[in-house]
Structure formats: structure tokens, C-alpha cells
Design goal:
heterodimer; A: alpha/beta; five-stranded parallel β-sheet; four-stranded antiparallel β-sheet; 8 helices; 9 strands; disordered N terminus; B: alpha+beta; 2 domains; eleven-stranded mixed β-sheet; two-stranded antiparallel sheet; 17 strands; 16% strand
Chain lengths: 248, 422
């Protein structure tokens, strides 16, 4: 199976089911800003774990917002798990994101007024598909959440603890558990380790990668820390991806 | 779990998490509710007490003059005394076709500031207040003989009188007026409270009124001439005039015809007033003060709701991160809008319920005090339709006020997406 499918035109056709992310001819510019993003082709196969590196401010977050369906491309196509995002309206993109994506942010990942368990179960509240998937695997969403929390090394005693009393490392692992709920086809992690101590970063990445493999989810791991690049299936330099070359 | 249930759950948990800040908002909504609904309650009951101070009487007849003056004097014993009407006129009206009963009232004397009303025993049967409520004698019996008095409940309670108490009437309403010390009255009955002017009146029969004035002329005792109580008893005590006549009709529909007939009858010039209509007019006249109160309490409510807007808006900055997280798990911007407006709705709802509870407690505690002090009964009763309507109006207004921060959150989350720099 080829890593890339360069120049794949619209309607990429066969094998789409085995593709977690397919970006084709993507162009984006902020309405009044100078920044331009241009990605000719980018594909993440199902279950593939990709490391994207690049300095801060190079447009990685914008790229992730496009993949998440928060931003709409000026031109080109993005499909997630075979479903085209770019042609859909806001609510349908929101739904697709809830169904198919798990997110881990740099920090402040958790809703402050929910305990750990409720935070982890959040995707099942907004996505029927995720709820059904979690129920199929573990019997119930709550059970799936408990299992994931345990697998990510968070003790039973943390389940109903207010998230403000968690360490940053614990918060990030709870966020990973939430992102993995219901085994979405794609996990997007935007600098999830940069708030962690150096010795925890590698452990976190390894745990995340392992759990993604377990869940069969593809992983887009974005970081400016190139020392972690070797841990995943493939590493991509964002500036190589962006033909517009960032600002300009 | 449905989307709405999810959002309600989130809104409640979020609100609970900020309960300290939000409890102040709830409190201010509660106080607005107490003010607005409480005012409505008091207004409603004062109006009832006022407009229904007399019921069951179809016409009040008196000497020709101002309608409102006649009602004020005959029913509330307020304002300047009207001229008397002749006893023969009263007799003529009693004999008219269509008239079922008449009860004459004669006023002008007082006892320690409380007006004395001379009437007939029929008064206790015929007089009605509120919705057709009859007077009840709580202690003793109605007056029978001359020099017997029946007290309204407030008179008895305030002056500490019981049955058998001897009282002296004073001529006129002033404290400096001469009294009728030579002809004391004995209290034979005390009426049950009514929340109407009856509570503040002393009732005697018409003959007693004649008897105490038998040796008077022109508002003062006749010098060098006095008649003892015993002798007065035996004299002719038929009144020559009365202040007003309460008239009940056989058929209510004849009221306009009879009103015309009485007012246009040859002889003495009379006024016939429909008490309900006149009191209603009078209440409307007094309505401007009521409207000012309304305006003030609506402003207070608006202030409370502005507090709600501003504190929810102020809290929004800290919540942008949280909203971005919700969007990352599939919440739509519209869900964010719903979440925020549900929160405001919950806050107002809690505030209104709290306010209604406060009000009930307040009425339970202060009701008897107000009733004692002002003679207005404020009942602890379930909210009236108008009060429910008001409460709902506050809730709707709170919801609409909550839309301001909610719409702001909608646009924030639309712009922020998933990336908020905290």
C-alpha cells in the first residue's frame, strides 16, 4: 500500500474506506490576513500514526482546524474516514467531528465543572455513533470510560475527582481517554506534550500511540519537539507539506 | 441521552460549579419577584377590600350631591358629611315597586375616633361585603334596645372592650366636640373581623341616635334643658332624617330604572349611586399612585436582570476554553447558545421559585401584622392567575436577558473554534 497518493483528484475512489484523512488540493487564506496554506496532497491511512513537526506559528493549528471542520477551506477537499467535509454545512461538520474525531489539546483539556468520568464520557453525550461504539465494545459507555481511564494509568480514586485537582500529566491522560472514547477513526493531538515535563513526554506519546493501535484509530500527533518524531509510523515536516510556505 | 438532556445536565452542573457567584443573581431575581408579585398581591387584596367593601347593596341613596362623596361617607365614613335626606323620602323609596329592602344609615357621632353608625337591626342581615359575605356576631348579639351598641372587631380589639362595657359617644368626629356623657351605651355585641370599614365602626339603632340628640339643637346641647336617658326612652324616637339609605332590589336588572326613578322623583332631590360602579371609578382615580409603584418594581426587576446579563457576560471570558472543548467533542455553536440560555433560564426559574417562597413566608409572618395595623387582610393563598402570569413574565424576561450573553457565546465559539489562547 502506497504511503501517499500524489495528485489524487477529486473523488479519490477505491480504498477510501481504508483512509483516515485525505486532503486534496487544499488552499486556505484568512479573509484579511497574509497567511496562506496550500497542501496538494496529504493522506493518513486507517490506523496510521503520523508525527507532524514544525515551529510554532507555521500554520499547524490552522491545518488541524481545517481537518476538524472548524474552518472551511478556500479550495480543495478534505475527507475524514471516507466522508467529505469540505462540502458540508456547519452543523454537519460539527456532527462529523463528534462522530469521527478525538481531540487532545496542549492544555486545559477538561471541562472544569465535570469530574474525570463525565469528562471522558463527553463524546458519547454529543455523538450517538461514539456512544454506540463504546457500548458495543464494553457493554456501556460508562464501563468503556472506566476501562480507558484505567488503561491510561489513572486510578479509580480519580474518577469523581474535580479536574482542577489533577496534575497536568493526569489531565492530559484523561484527555487522551476522552479522545479514545468510542474508538474514533482519527485522533488529533495538538502539542499535547508541551505542557508536560520532559521525562513525561515520551511516556505519554508511547502510551497514546499504543492505545491508538489498540483502538484502531489513526493518530495525527503535532509537536515542535522533533526528538519525539521517531516514535510513530511516519514523520512529516509541516513546512514540506505546506506548499505556500507559511507567511507570504 | 438526548441532546437537550445533555445540555440541561451541563448547564446545571456548570451553574452549580459557580454557585457562589450565581446565587447572588438568583437572589436578585428572587427579590424582584417578591417585589413584583408581592405588590400585585397587596394591590389585588386592597382593591378587593376597597371595591367590595360593600356588596349585595344595589343602590346607595342620599341627599343630592357628589356620588363619590356619598359613597365615601356612607361606606367608608370618610370625607365631609353629606346632607341628610328626609325620613319620609326614605319611607317612600322603601315602598317603591321593585325595592326588596332598605337599610337606613345615620352618621355623625363617634367614639374615640371611631365613627358611630345608627341603623336598623336589618343591617346585620342585609349588609354584605366581599363576595356576598354576611356579617357575623362573634360575641353577644345584635343591638335590640335603645342605648345598646355593637362594635366592629377592630374597635373592640384596639380599645380592649368586652361585652357589658359602658361607652360614651361624642358628637361629631373631632376630639374636642361635646359628648353625650349623660346617655352612656352598653356594648351588647362584637362583630367578627371583615377586613372592611365595618371593623372600625360602632353600631347603634336609629332610635338611640334620636335619643342622644333629643335635647340638642344645632350641634350643641340646649342650654338649661336636658332630658334624662330614662325619659328619652319613652319619647317618640322616630328619626326625622338619615344620612343614607342602602337599597336592595328584587331584580338587579331594574337598577337603572330605579336609579332614574329615585333621582327624578318629585320632592326632595336625591342621588342614587351604584356602589360597585362608584368604587371602581374611585379606585381607577387612585390608580396613578399604583402605576408609579408598578414602574418602580419593573425597574427593579430590570436591574436584577441586567445584573444577570452582566455577570453571565463577565464569566464568559473564562468559559471560552470550556466552550472550545465542547465544540471539539461535536457541540454545535447552536448548542453553545442553548447551553448559555438554559443556564439563564435555570437561574431565573430558581430565582422566581425562591421569590415566591420568600413571599409566602413573608405573608405568613407579616400578614397578621398588616391586617392588624391597616385592616387589610393579605391572605396566604395560592398565586392568582395574574400572579402566575407575572411570574412567567419574569421568567420569559430572564430567558430573553440570558440570550444576550448566549448570542455573544455563540459568536465567540464560532470564531474561536478549537483554538483559544488562554
Amino acid at each position: 500500500m502506497g504511503n501517499d497518493s500524489p495528485g489524487a483528484g477529486p473523488g479519490a475512489g477505491p480504498g477510501a474506506g481504508g483512509v483516515a484523512v485525505r486532503v486534496t488540493g487544499l488552499r486556505f487564506a484568512w479573509p484579511r490576513g497574509p497567511f496562506r496554506l496550500s497542501v496538494g496532497s496529504f493522506v493518513v491511512r486507517a490506523g496510521e500514526r503520523v508525527f507532524i513537526s514544525g515551529p510554532s506559528g507555521c500554520g499547524k493549528s490552522t491545518f488541524l482546524s481545517l481537518i476538524a471542520g472548524i474552518l472551511r477551506p478556500t479550495a480543495g477537499e478534505i475527507s475524514i474516514d471516507g466522508e467529505d467535509l469540505s462540502g458540508k454545512g456547519g452543523p454537519r461538520r460539527d456532527r462529523l467531528r463528534g462522530d469521527k474525531l478525538g481531540f487532545i489539546f496542549q492544555q486545559f483539556n477538561l471541562v472544569p465543572y465535570l469530574n474525570v468520568l463525565d469528562n471522558v464520557m463527553l463524546p458519547c453525550r454529543f455523538s450517538k455513533a461514539r456512544n454506540e461504539a463504546a457500548t458495543r465494545v464494553s457493554g456501556s459507555a460508562a464501563k468503556a470510560a472506566r476501562e480507558l481511564i484505567a488503561r491510561l494509568g489513572l486510578g479509580e480514586d480519580l474518577l469523581d475527582r474535580p479536574v482542577s485537582r489533577l496534575s497536568v500529566g493526569q489531565q492530559q491522560r484523561a484527555a487522551a481517554a476522552r479522545a479514545l472514547m468510542g474508538r474514533p477513526p482519527l485522533l488529533v493531538a495538538d502539542e499535547p506534550t508541551s505542557a508536560l515535563d520532559a521525562d513525561l513526554r515520551l511516556a505519554f506519546l508511547r502510551l497514546l500511540a499504543q492505545e491508538c493501535r489498540e483502538a484502531g484509530s489513526a493518530l495525527l500527533f503535532v509537536s515542535h519537539d522533533r526528538s519525539l518524531a521517531g516514535e510513530l509510523d511516519r514523520a512529516v515536516e509541516f513546512n514540506d507539506l505546506n506548499e505556500a510556505g507559511g507567511a507570504g | 441521552m438526548s441532546r437537550l438532556a445533555t445540555l440541561v445536565g451541563l448547564a446545571l452542573k456548570s451553574a452549580w460549579n459557580r454557585r457562589l457567584t450565581l446565587s447572588l443573581i438568583v437572589l436578585s431575581v428572587a427579590l424582584s419577584t417578591v417585589l413584583l408579585v408581592g405588590l400585585e398581591r397587596v394591590r389585588g387584596q386592597v382593591r378587593t377590600a376597597f371595591v367590595q367593601a360593600i356588596s349585595g347593596t344595589d343602590l346607595v341613596v342620599g341627599a343630592r350631591g357628589g356620588q363619590i362623596q356619598l359613597i365615601l361617607y356612607a361606606v367608608f365614613h370618610l370625607g365631609g358629611a353629606t346632607n341628610n335626606m328626609g325620613w319620609d323620602s326614605a319611607q317612600k323609596i322603601a315602598a317603591m315597586d321593585g325595592v326588596a329592602w332598605t337599610v337606613p344609615l345615620s352618621m355623625g357621632d363617634s367614639h374615640r375616633g371611631y365613627p358611630v353608625v345608627a341603623t336598623e337591626a336589618g343591617f346585620f342581615e342585609r349588609f354584605r361585603y366581599r363576595r356576598d359575605q354576611a356579617l357575623e356576631v362573634a360575641e353577644g348579639r345584635p343591638f335590640g334596645d335603645v342605648f345598646e351598641a355593637v362594635l366592629g372587631s377592630e374597635v373592640a380589639a384596639r380599645l380592649g372592650y368586652g361585652l357589658g362595657q359602658s361607652i360614651v359617644l361624642r358628637h361629631g368626629l373631632g376630639q374636642a366636640a361635646p359628648d353625650h356623657a349623660d346617655k352612656p351605651f352598653s356594648v351588647v355585641g362584637i362583630l367578627a373581623p371583615t377586613g372592611s370599614p365595618v371593623d372600625r365602626s360602632v353600631y347603634i339603632n336609629l332610635e338611640s341616635m334620636e335619643a342622644i340628640h333629643i335635647d340638642w339643637r344645632g350641634g350643641a346641647p340646649i342650654r338649661g334643658f336636658s332630658v334624662s336617658a330614662e325619659r328619652a326612652r319613652k319619647m317618640n324616637l322616630t328619626p326625622k332624617s338619615v344620612t343614607a339609605l342602602l337599597v336592595g332590589l328584587k331584580n338587579r336588572r331594574d337598577v337603572f330604572a330605579l336609579q332614574r326613578e329615585i333621582q327624578s322623583a318629585p320632592g326632595e332631590a336625591l342621588s342614587a349611586v351604584m356602589p360597585g360602579v362608584a368604587l371602581d371609578q374611585l379606585w381607577r382615580l387612585l390608580g396613578s399612585g399604583e402605576r408609579v409603584l408598578w414602574l418602580v418594581s419593573i425597574l427593579v426587576t430590570a436591574t436584577g436582570l441586567m445584573g444577570l446579563i452582566s455577570s453571565v457576560l463577565a464569566g464568559l471570558g473564562e468559559r471560552r476554553r470550556e466552550l472550545a472543548i465542547l465544540r471539539s467533542v461535536g457541540a454545535r455553536p447552536l448548542d453553545v447558545l442553548a447551553l448559555l440560555s438554559l443556564e439563564s433560564l435555570a437561574l431565573t426559574l430558581a430565582g422566581v421559585l425562591m421569590g415566591l417562597t420568600f413571599l409566602a413566608i413573608l405573608i405568613a409572618v407579616l400578614g397578621p401584622v398588616i391586617s392588624d395595623a391597616y385592616g387589610v387582610a393579605i391572605d396566604l393563598s395560592p398565586p392568582t392567575a395574574r400572579e402566575w402570569l407575572l411570574s412567567c413574565a419574569i421568567i420569559v424576561a430572564g430567558y430573553l436577558a440570558g440570550l444576550v450573553p448566549a448570542v455573544r457565546a455563540y459568536f465567540l465559539s464560532l470564531g474561536d473554534g478549537l483554538s483559544v489562547s488562554v
